[in-house]
Amino acid sequence: MHKDELLQLHSLLCQVKRYFEDSGLPLVGEFRDYEHLAVSPQHIHKSKTEHKKAVFLLGKGLAEVILQGQPDHQARLRERFIRLATVATADDDEDDELPSRDAGLPAFALAALRH
Predict the structure, then answer these.
(1) Is residue 90 within 8 Å of 99, Cβ to Cβ?
(2) 14 close to 40: Cβ distance less than 8 angstroms
(3) Which tens digits make up the pLDDT trace of 35-59?
(4) Which residues of 37-66 are buried (b: 16+ CB within 10 A; e: fewer)?
(5) What is the topology classification, in CATH, of domain 3-113?
């Protein structure tokens, strides 16, 4: 995925986040990790890796909101997004090969992490 595409995805996920915040749902820190990262779609000077991590942390928060009341599903999805965010952080934008520890990731995640 190119950086401009990643920025667009980041922006769209932020809009979904804003929708949930404005909808009156009882949010209790689902987006804390994303906000702590301090990377927004407008921060075009930030690295591709930082935006990848932001997208995965946003996804984790959105999953937590969507799956409220279903803790077993929520836990699995939350762990998957945490793992993806960790991989995105460890990913070096100049490497063409992914480390062997990524072999267990789903195809969509591997595609997102490739250049």
Answers:
(1) yes
(2) yes
(3) 999 999 999 999 999 999 999 999 9
(4) bebbbeeeebebbbbbbbbbbbbbbbbbbe
(5) Substrate Binding Domain Of Dnak; Chain:A; Domain 2 (1.20.1270)
